[in-house]
Structures are given as C-alpha cells and as structure tokens.
Amino acid sequence: MIERNAQPRSWFGQLASDTAYNLGGFLLGLPAFVLAVSLFSFGLSTAIIYIGVFILVGALLVARFFASAERQLTEWNSGALPPVYYRHANAHSRLRSVLGPLSDLQAWKDLIHAFVSFPVRVAAFSITLAWVAGALGGMTEWFWIRFIPGASTDVWDLLGIDPEFHWLLQFGAGLILLLTLPPLMKGLARIQRALTVGLLTNERRQLRERTEYLTNSRSSAVAAEAGTLRRIERDIHDGPQQRIVRMAMDLESAKRRLQPGDSETRELIEGAINQSREALAELRSLSRGIAPPVLVERGLPAALDAAAARCPVPVTLNTNGIGSGRFTPAAESAAYFAAVEALTNVAKHSNATECRLSARAEEGVLTVEVEDNGRGGAHVGKGTGLAGLQDRLAGVDGALEIDSPVDGGTTVRISIPVPVSQPV
C-alpha cells in the first residue's frame, strides 16, 4: 500500500511527485480503461442471456480494484482524500449478495472514472513527457547536437537565424520549459485529483448513512426507554401500590378491632394509616410521572382528557384530529407530558381564566396546542419548565413553538413526526 504524505514536500520533491503522478497515472489508467471497456461492452451485449449480468459485476469489481489503487496513488501525491463508502451486502441469498455491486452507486462511479479519466491521463502523460523532454533536451542541445551525424534543418533555420545562435535559443527555450514545469505538473495533478475526489469518494453518502444509523439508534433507544418506563409504571401499580392499599385496609380493620381504652395503640395505628396514605399518594404521583395507566391502556386522547380534567383552569379539549389511532409509545409519552407541562404552566404562571387544548395528526406529524388567555410573555429562558419540555421533545425529533406576546395570551405548539399505527 502506498503511504500518504506525512510532511509537506520541498518544491523539488513536489515537482518529482507530480511528474511521477502524471506519468504513473497513465500506466494505471491504461489497463483500467481497456479492461473496463472490454468487460462492460461484453457484459452489456450478453446481458440478454444472463451471463452478461455476471460479466457486468466483474467489470464493476475490476473498476473498484483500480479505483482503490488510484485513491492510494492520489493520496501519496497530494494528501488524504475524503472517505469512500460502498454499500454492504445484506442480502440473505448468495445470488443477491453476488449481484450487490449492480445496485451500488459508488461501484458505477468507479467504472465511469475508468472511462472519463483515461483521456485526461493520456493528455497529462503526453504533456508531461513533452515538457520534460523539451526542457532537458533544449538545455543540453549544445552538448549532444555534435554527436548527431549529417546536417539538419530546424525551426531556427526556417526563421533565418544564424546557426551560431541556435544553441543559445534552444537553451533559452529549454529554460522556459523548465521554469514552467512545476506549475504545469501541479495543475495537471490537481485536475486528476479533482476527478478522483468527484468520482471515487462519497463523503456525503457516508455521513448520510451514519446520520441515518444514529437516528435509528436513538429512536430505538427512546422507544426502549418508553417501554421500560411503562413496564415500571405497571409494576408499581400491580405491586407496591396494591400492597400499600392492602396494608392501609388491614390497618383500618385492626383499628376497628381495638379496645376503646387502648388509646396508645390507636394513635400508633392512625399514624401508620396516615403514613401509608402519604406513601400511596407519593407512589401514585411518581407513577403518573412515568406514564399514566390511561395513556398506556386507552391512548393519547383519553390521557389528554384526564390531564385537562385535572387542570384548575377550565380547559376546552379537542382531540378529534387524532381519532382512535395509536402512536408509538415514545411519541405518545412525549406528547402527553409536553401537554401536561404546558397546562401546568398555564395554571401556575399565566393568570388565565380559560384554556384550549387541541391535538391533531396530519401528514405524519402529531401536533398538540395549548392556548390560554393569560398575561403572556412566556419563553424558554424564564425557568417555567419549557426548557425541560424542549429536552423531552428532542428525543423524538419534536419541535416546540411558543407565541406569547405580553398581555396577549400564550400559545404553545408541540410537533412530533410520527406515523400512525393501526387503530385500536
């Protein structure tokens, strides 16, 4: 494998590198072009009898091999290239795995590079060879011309210049070619590098694939978290919460069976009953913070109805826009708790006398709006819980919009992209 540049080269080292790159590129591109054209033409002409399909796959694999060599040569000459990404074969059958390159855009770009770059390589090779030969030959003609037998006529003779000055003119021409050689070699090398970057790398695709992978991973993590929280809520409801209720009932029963004069025991039991009631209230509050049973069992419309009923400010509810469909657990939880937080802000900070809560699902977006007629002036930075609401929505790619002019009421709009599943 050809190593990349570790340190910047001197001007002479870069000149030698660019010259070698322009000459070596032709030696690499010639077999790439011949094989690519031959295999592609033969495969295309025999595709009708199916064998050509496998020949086309062979052409793509050959192009990929030469593309890899070209990337290494380019990195050796001018430094690191953007990354390249080939589609991984995820097919279960061996045949589909073999035919995988046919559906890979980068494989076809490798093949196109073998076609398109060849005339550029020929031109770069020819110009480099002519320029180097002209520079060295012109500057040394005074030495080697004497060894050429017989008289010769050159361009200077046609211009009527005295033969005594021919060597000086040749030397000057060779010197000009030598001085222009570095920028010319660099320019030709940069043209070939541009072709390599344009056709043999695909950083955007790699970043897009990585972004999709991270998005899917985050969605899976959020969904798993929502499922876990719902299991915890169900376990709390079916386990400790029921046990505390049973314990309170047993204490009440024990209290009724006490002797009238046993005041100390009665006081202890009453204290235990109060403690159990407080523990039950705290446990229910905690479970509601995870996921209310109504949300799990009956869906978002019923959960929003319950949240509106608990709000001390009169709430007008409209959930007709989401029908009876169910959303993903993560989306339902995010929408519910965002609505609850918005209603809590209305009750605590807005001084409103009425409020409107609506929910609708359109074109794959779940939208929840909470509008009040309060004093307005709300924004994320005031510590009203809206910052936490933003964090909760970020986990499901949701968006938060706040319209809250002073003395003009507040409208909080929550948007969550999510498809609707089958109605339940």
Helix-strand blueprint:
Blueprint lengths: L10 H35 L5 H28 L15 H5 L6 H40 L10 H4 L7 H35 L2 H36 L1 H17 L6 H28 L2 H6 L1 H11 L4 E7 L7 H22 L4 E8 L2 E8 L13 H9 L4 E5 L6 E8 L7
Parallel strand pairs: 1-2
Antiparallel strand pairs: 2-3, 3-5, 4-5
Helix pairs in contact: 1-2, 1-4, 1-6, 2-4, 2-6, 4-6, 7-8, 7-9, 8-9, 11-12, 12-13
Report on this model:
This protein is an alpha+beta fold and 424 residues long. The protein has three domains: 11-201, no CATH class; 220-290; 294-417, Heat Shock Protein 90 (2-Layer Sandwich), CATH 3.30.565.10. Helices cover 65% and strands 8% of the residues. The chain has 13 helices and five strands. It has helices at 11-45, 51-78, 94-98, 105-144, 155-158, 166-200, 203-238, 240-256, 263-290, 293-298, 300-310, 329-350, 386-394; strands at 315-321, 355-362, 365-372, 399-403, 410-417. The protein has a five-stranded mixed β-sheet, covered by helices on one side. Helix 12 (329-350) links the parallel strand 1 (315-321) and strand 2 (355-362). Helix 7 packs parallel to helix 8 (240-256) and helix 8 (240-256) runs antiparallel to helix 9. The protein is elongated, with a radius of gyration of 39 Å. Mean pLDDT is 80; it is low at 1-6.
